[in-house]
Amino acid sequence: MPQLDIVSYFPQFFWFCIFFTGFYVVLIQNYLPKLTRIIAVREALQPSPDQISSNTQESDTVTTKTHEVFAKTVHQTKEKCVQQFTETQNLLNIQTDVFNKHTNQAFAKYQTKKIQLNQTVKQTLQQMQTLLPGLKLRSSPMSQKQTSQFFSQALVNKLVNKTKSSKGKIK
Prior knowledge:
Elements: H1 6-45, H2 49-131, H3 144-170
Protein backbone atom coordinates (compact mmCIF):
# COMPACT_ATOMS: atom_id res chain seq x y z
CA MET A 1 0.00 0.00 0.00
CA PRO A 2 1.49 3.32 -1.05
CA GLN A 3 0.27 5.29 1.96
CA LEU A 4 2.29 3.07 4.31
CA ASP A 5 5.47 3.17 2.23
CA ILE A 6 8.36 4.43 4.41
CA VAL A 7 9.93 6.31 1.51
CA SER A 8 6.79 8.41 0.84
CA TYR A 9 5.82 8.83 4.51
CA PHE A 10 7.81 11.99 5.19
CA PRO A 11 6.50 13.99 2.16
CA GLN A 12 2.93 13.05 3.08
CA PHE A 13 3.48 14.17 6.71
CA PHE A 14 5.12 17.40 5.54
CA TRP A 15 2.22 18.41 3.28
CA PHE A 16 -0.29 17.40 5.95
CA CYS A 17 1.37 19.77 8.43
CA ILE A 18 1.59 22.60 5.88
CA PHE A 19 -2.08 22.30 4.88
CA PHE A 20 -3.52 22.16 8.40
CA THR A 21 -1.23 24.92 9.69
CA GLY A 22 -2.45 27.17 6.86
CA PHE A 23 -6.05 26.15 7.56
CA TYR A 24 -5.59 26.95 11.27
CA VAL A 25 -4.12 30.40 10.52
CA VAL A 26 -7.02 31.27 8.18
CA LEU A 27 -9.55 30.23 10.82
CA ILE A 28 -7.86 32.22 13.59
CA GLN A 29 -7.44 35.40 11.55
CA ASN A 30 -10.71 35.47 9.56
CA TYR A 31 -13.48 33.44 11.08
CA LEU A 32 -12.77 33.51 14.82
CA PRO A 33 -13.12 37.34 15.12
CA LYS A 34 -16.45 37.22 13.25
CA LEU A 35 -17.76 34.45 15.52
CA THR A 36 -16.75 36.37 18.68
CA ARG A 37 -18.58 39.49 17.41
CA ILE A 38 -21.74 37.45 16.72
CA ILE A 39 -21.63 35.91 20.20
CA ALA A 40 -21.13 39.35 21.79
CA VAL A 41 -24.11 40.80 19.90
CA ARG A 42 -26.33 37.88 20.95
CA GLU A 43 -25.38 38.31 24.59
CA ALA A 44 -26.18 42.02 24.36
CA LEU A 45 -29.57 41.32 22.81
CA GLN A 46 -30.63 38.73 25.39
CA PRO A 47 -33.34 40.13 27.64
CA SER A 48 -32.90 40.75 31.33
CA PRO A 49 -34.96 38.77 33.90
CA ASP A 50 -37.43 41.72 34.21
CA GLN A 51 -38.08 41.66 30.51
CA ILE A 52 -38.56 37.91 30.56
CA SER A 53 -41.62 38.13 32.86
CA SER A 54 -43.32 40.72 30.66
CA ASN A 55 -42.44 38.67 27.57
CA THR A 56 -44.10 35.58 29.04
CA GLN A 57 -47.32 37.53 29.52
CA GLU A 58 -47.15 38.76 25.96
CA SER A 59 -46.36 35.31 24.67
CA ASP A 60 -49.30 33.87 26.64
CA THR A 61 -51.69 36.38 25.07
CA VAL A 62 -50.26 35.76 21.63
CA THR A 63 -50.57 32.00 22.17
CA THR A 64 -54.22 32.23 23.25
CA LYS A 65 -55.07 34.49 20.31
CA THR A 66 -53.29 32.12 17.95
CA HIS A 67 -55.26 29.17 19.32
CA GLU A 68 -58.54 31.10 18.97
CA VAL A 69 -57.78 32.04 15.37
CA PHE A 70 -56.73 28.48 14.58
CA ALA A 71 -59.90 27.00 16.11
CA LYS A 72 -62.06 29.50 14.19
CA THR A 73 -60.26 28.68 10.94
CA VAL A 74 -60.65 24.93 11.49
CA HIS A 75 -64.37 25.39 12.20
CA GLN A 76 -64.86 27.48 9.04
CA THR A 77 -62.94 24.95 6.97
CA LYS A 78 -65.09 22.10 8.26
CA GLU A 79 -68.28 24.02 7.45
CA LYS A 80 -67.09 24.81 3.93
CA CYS A 81 -66.06 21.19 3.32
CA VAL A 82 -69.47 19.94 4.44
CA GLN A 83 -71.19 22.56 2.27
CA GLN A 84 -69.06 21.64 -0.75
CA PHE A 85 -69.73 17.94 -0.18
CA THR A 86 -73.50 18.44 -0.07
CA GLU A 87 -73.42 20.62 -3.20
CA THR A 88 -71.39 17.98 -5.04
CA GLN A 89 -73.74 15.23 -3.88
CA ASN A 90 -76.78 17.21 -5.06
CA LEU A 91 -75.15 17.87 -8.43
CA LEU A 92 -74.32 14.19 -8.86
CA ASN A 93 -77.89 13.22 -7.95
CA ILE A 94 -79.24 15.62 -10.58
CA GLN A 95 -76.86 14.30 -13.23
CA THR A 96 -77.75 10.71 -12.33
CA ASP A 97 -81.45 11.46 -12.62
CA VAL A 98 -80.96 13.08 -16.03
CA PHE A 99 -78.86 10.15 -17.21
CA ASN A 100 -81.44 7.63 -15.99
CA LYS A 101 -84.22 9.59 -17.68
CA HIS A 102 -82.40 9.61 -21.03
CA THR A 103 -81.51 5.94 -20.69
CA ASN A 104 -85.12 5.00 -19.97
CA GLN A 105 -86.33 7.06 -22.93
CA ALA A 106 -83.80 5.43 -25.24
CA PHE A 107 -84.76 1.96 -23.99
CA ALA A 108 -88.45 2.70 -24.50
CA LYS A 109 -87.75 3.87 -28.09
CA TYR A 110 -85.72 0.70 -28.68
CA GLN A 111 -88.57 -1.48 -27.42
CA THR A 112 -91.15 0.25 -29.61
CA LYS A 113 -88.90 -0.01 -32.69
CA LYS A 114 -88.31 -3.69 -31.94
CA ILE A 115 -92.05 -4.35 -31.68
CA GLN A 116 -92.68 -2.40 -34.90
CA LEU A 117 -89.97 -4.36 -36.70
CA ASN A 118 -91.37 -7.70 -35.52
CA GLN A 119 -94.84 -6.69 -36.67
CA THR A 120 -93.50 -5.56 -40.05
CA VAL A 121 -91.66 -8.85 -40.53
CA LYS A 122 -94.77 -10.86 -39.64
CA GLN A 123 -96.92 -8.79 -42.01
CA THR A 124 -94.36 -9.21 -44.80
CA LEU A 125 -94.27 -12.97 -44.29
CA GLN A 126 -98.07 -13.15 -44.32
CA GLN A 127 -98.21 -11.09 -47.52
CA MET A 128 -95.62 -13.32 -49.17
CA GLN A 129 -97.58 -16.42 -48.22
CA THR A 130 -100.75 -14.95 -49.67
CA LEU A 131 -98.99 -13.89 -52.89
CA LEU A 132 -96.93 -17.08 -53.26
CA PRO A 133 -99.05 -19.87 -51.77
CA GLY A 134 -96.81 -22.67 -53.07
CA LEU A 135 -93.68 -21.20 -51.47
CA LYS A 136 -92.92 -22.66 -48.09
CA LEU A 137 -91.47 -19.93 -45.86
CA ARG A 138 -89.82 -20.58 -42.57
CA SER A 139 -91.60 -18.74 -39.84
CA SER A 140 -89.13 -19.84 -37.20
CA PRO A 141 -85.48 -18.91 -37.40
CA MET A 142 -82.82 -21.53 -38.13
CA SER A 143 -81.31 -23.28 -35.17
CA GLN A 144 -77.74 -22.55 -34.21
CA LYS A 145 -76.61 -25.97 -35.42
CA GLN A 146 -78.20 -25.48 -38.83
CA THR A 147 -76.69 -22.01 -39.12
CA SER A 148 -73.20 -23.24 -38.27
CA GLN A 149 -73.55 -26.11 -40.75
CA PHE A 150 -74.65 -23.72 -43.47
CA PHE A 151 -71.73 -21.33 -42.96
CA SER A 152 -69.17 -24.11 -42.60
CA GLN A 153 -70.39 -25.71 -45.86
CA ALA A 154 -70.21 -22.32 -47.62
CA LEU A 155 -66.66 -21.83 -46.32
CA VAL A 156 -65.58 -25.28 -47.50
CA ASN A 157 -67.06 -24.64 -50.95
CA LYS A 158 -65.28 -21.32 -51.22
CA LEU A 159 -61.93 -22.86 -50.22
CA VAL A 160 -62.38 -25.72 -52.70
CA ASN A 161 -63.15 -23.25 -55.49
CA LYS A 162 -60.07 -21.16 -54.62
CA THR A 163 -57.76 -24.16 -54.61
CA LYS A 164 -59.12 -25.30 -57.98
CA SER A 165 -58.64 -21.87 -59.50
CA SER A 166 -55.14 -21.51 -58.07
CA LYS A 167 -54.12 -24.92 -59.45
CA GLY A 168 -55.38 -23.88 -62.84
CA LYS A 169 -53.30 -20.71 -62.75
CA ILE A 170 -50.12 -22.57 -61.75
CA LYS A 171 -50.27 -25.00 -64.70
